[in-house]
Amino acid sequence: MNSVEELCTLISSRITWGPGEDRSLNADTPLLEMGLVDSLAIMEIVTALDKEGGISLPDTAIVAANFRTPKALWAAIGNLAGEGDE
After folding, report:
1. Is 25 domain-assigned?
2. Which end of the chain is more exposed for a tag (fewer CB within 10 A), N or C?
3. Is the pLDDT of residue 72 over 70?
4. Residue 40 and residue 45: Cα distance in Å, rounded?
């Protein structure tokens, strides 16, 4: 996973879209506010990040604030990567 755009694609593939819904996400799409993700979708995203992106989120990072937007999740992932460097 090299960019927030790749993360948007991963998230988009885990959302159950309704007929006729615009299936595009950008870094600032309000995922929770728009009802695009729920607890099941969050767990699917977490699993996909691990399997497809090699990114393992600790339980402490699986909080609503990190799933408000793709940008928020990308920042959380970046923070985890930074912690591993210390």
Report:
1. no
2. C
3. yes
4. 9
